[in-house]
Amino acid sequence: MGFGTGFAIYFIIWWLMLFVVLPFGHRSQDDEQNVTLGTVSSAPANFSLGKVVLRTTVVSAIVFGIYVMFTEYLGYSIRDVMELFPDFA
């Protein structure tokens, strides 16, 4: 796998993991009993973009490492994964 391909796959994994990690530790303004005027009560109370980006990067690195292990070192490919599922056609 080349650098460009690896970067593209990591970026896709990072973007998907962002939406997985985003709700972790989420406390709404309603949970904190401190709703700011003009916002909905489900808005985040103390949102920290830095923590979300750091968590996403760590989780993405782990998932990417597992992907590299299976594809580069164990020799599996996407076609091998697709053969695990039954053919419904």
Q: What would a concise description of this structure say?
A:
The protein is mostly helical. It has 4 helices and no strands. The model has no long low-confidence stretch (mean pLDDT about 85).
Secondary-structure element sequence?
HHHH
Largest sheet: none
Give average pLDDT, whole number: 86
- Give the DSSP E fraction (strand runs of 2 or more residues): under 5%
Distance between the termini: 32 Å
Compute the number of strand runs.
Answer: 0
Instruction: Give the uncertain stretches in residue-range form.
Output: none
Structural class: mainly alpha
Helix fraction? 55-70%
How many H/I helices?
4
| Shape designation | elongated
Keywords:
single chain, 89 residues, mainly alpha, 4 helices, 60% helix
Characterization of this structure:
The protein has 89 residues and is mainly α. The protein is built from four helices and no strands. It has helices at residues 3-21, 29-32, 49-73, 78-82. α1 packs across α3 (49-73). The longest helix has 25 residues, at 49-73. It is elongated and about 55 Å long.
Write the layout of secondary structure elements.
Elements: H1 3-21, H2 29-32, H3 49-73, H4 78-82
Helix pairs in contact: 1-3
